[in-house]
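Q: I'm writing up a methods section and want to include an example of the input and output format. Could you take the sequence below and give the corresponding predicted structure tokens, formatted cleanly so I can copy it straight into the document?
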Amino acid sequence: MILRELSRPRSIWELIPRQDSHLEELHSIVGELLKQGYLEVKEGKLSLTPKGRDLARDLGISHRREGFFETARTRCVTLVSFLPEMKIYEMIASRRPPIRAEFDQGYMRPKDVFFRLVVMYERGDLEGAEIAVLGDDDLLGIALALTGLPRKVEVFEVDENIVEFENRIARQRDLKLEAHVYDFRRKLDGRWLSGFDTFVTDPVETIHGLKLTFSRGAAMLRDGGSGYFGLTRLESSLAKWREVQRMLNEMNFAITDLYPNFSVYPLEGNIGSYLESCEVYRAFSSLSWPPDADFYTSHLYRIEAVGRPKPLVAPDEEMMEDILHDEESWVTP
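A: Here is the clean output for your methods example:
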């Protein structure tokens, strides 16, 4: 895939979302291809050398045919329009609190927030639903409540600035939305057990973080409830994806939908503000810096409980160790 994508010059940042290796693995592959003379770097762009083009031809790899990459996310948004709500959301989100690197925050583009919302609508998880949003630097809770379709939306967020912001917007616009300060590592209040039809989250992508977040979501769901979460390939290897599948199976969930490269996280005013403190900077800045493309994308999963969800971390169990970092956390400050 990497040889195919480099049939035309691309920066490392343009390449990242167009291939399927996690960042540590990609760094190793690109380094080896450069060392062996299959790739070269000119003016911040990676490209195939004549030797690399010969290798691609010998492997039966042709030039990249454009078309699918940019349109893969668009099928769902043609089904229904939420443009009035999206315009209000964009106005509100423009006043969002600054992101906080200590919480590994980073928000997706407004249209990607609504891509997710429309998927929830089409799958029957929005109208009349009671929805728990676990972590909300994207302000998805506001977007959901603006539609007027859910019965209630409750946000659980460690950042008190986001909680205060969402509650203020909810009061001003009379939204069925309430936000709570909650650190997932702490025990879950009994009043939230089995109280929701759907949870939505973008979990910390360490094994401990994934296990804890999915467990909190599972504990909040009623029997047969559904969940949505984003997961990258940039900070999660296939081995970690397999472990995610194992955990979900053990919690009594079935994976019903998977949308690849569904959400894009812009750099400006967002994750770009802390990249120089991350491993991705140390690994790739010698090839091209600053990044010239919004390279951070995530895949969207939908899961559904088969009967009663079974959290792996008990609701009254606390997990106070570091859940933010592992060896694959290359875009985590």
